[in-house]
């Protein structure tokens, strides 16, 4: 899935594959080692697990299971900064109840948004100490992307997919 290259040291590359398998390379991709220290194996990972780099600090990354995890030492160790942000696991052939998108404000790293595959959108304004659900008036659909505005601190863009429900219509909200 998405690779992330450290903008301050391009020899450092993070590579994510199915179900949240995360590797880190410090030699420009010649070799990778596991980078999930601190994330419990019992957490629920989405097929395409959310992973983002803090735009203000290349040593800080965020990773989503049903919770949001944070590392401040370039994936050396992860710590949960949220409770379960989903509506819980669902039965069926796919795991539901996972964080699908995370966005950190480039204006203030304490402002972090998270969206889930069961329609929840959350924000923390204190770096993960307190989370507020902001999606009560939005569709109950898979959140495909949350994106913090690069111009206005308290503005976020959210996209939803109706694919799971047989809908072709997408949803975009600000």
Please sum up the structure shown.
With 174 residues, the protein is an all-beta fold. It is 0% helix and 35% strand.
What does this structure look like?
The strands form 4 sheets. The chain has a 4-stranded antiparallel beta sheet, with no helix packed on it. A 4-stranded antiparallel beta sheet has the order 5-6-7-8, with no helix packed on it. Strands 9-10-11-12 form a 4-stranded antiparallel beta sheet, with no helix packed on it. It has strands spanning 3-5, 13-17, 21-25, 33-34, 51-53, 61-64, 68-71, 79-80, 99-104, 112-116, 121-124, 132-133, 142-148, 156-161, 171-173. The protein contains no helices and 15 strands. Strand 11 (121-124) and strand 12 form a beta hairpin. The chain has 174 residues and is mostly beta strands. The mean pLDDT is 93.
| Main sheet: strand order | 1-2-3-4
Distance between the termini: 26 Å
Number of strands: 15
Tell me the series of helices and strands, N- to C-terminal. Answer: EEEEEEEEEEEEEEE
Specify the number of helices.
0
Helix coverage percent of residues?
under 10%
Can you summarize the main beta sheet?
A: 4 strands, antiparallel
List low-pLDDT spans.
Answer: none
Would you tell me the overall average pLDDT?
93
Derived structural class: mainly beta
The backbone outline, from C-alpha atoms, is globular
Relative strand content: 35-45%
- Please compute the radius of gyration using only Cα atoms: 16 Å
